[in-house]
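One example given next:
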Amino acid sequence: MFNDTYSFSRQNQSLTVNKNGIAWKSDKQKRFGKDVFPKNFQGGGLVGGATLNVSIPLNEQEDLMVWMRTAALPTFRKLYGKIDVDLQANEIINVTLKNNYNTYSFNGKKKLVLSTTSWIGGRNDFLGIAYLTVGMICFVLSMGFTVVYFIKPRRLGDPTFLSWNRGPGSH
């Protein structure tokens, strides 16, 4: 599990990172058990990161849930936490990083991204624009097919109308 730690401050005042509410609701309710405790999860010789709290059930350890969520692409983002305080543009934020997770063995890279989110997700407009564009194309095509249907409807009950070959000997 990822075990780098970050702390943030501005004007010598610490900013609290909220790690509650970072996992998906489906993960908390279905994927990770409320009666499952990680007692024997870390008993092997190879320890790759953070240790889990054995007194807390898995459905309450949101760091683990976020880390275990499979990424679709080789470059991905994992939510570390939320800063619930409003930050201003051009404000200087001091970040203290404790680099514990080894990415050197596989030439991996880590980046820290501070991002603004809303109730529908991040600030990337591409996905919303793509959905609207595809929706408009589908709407225009459906209107085109509807107009063609009303102008030149298909004859009902005449199977010869469906035949491509209308020459002698066709059925």
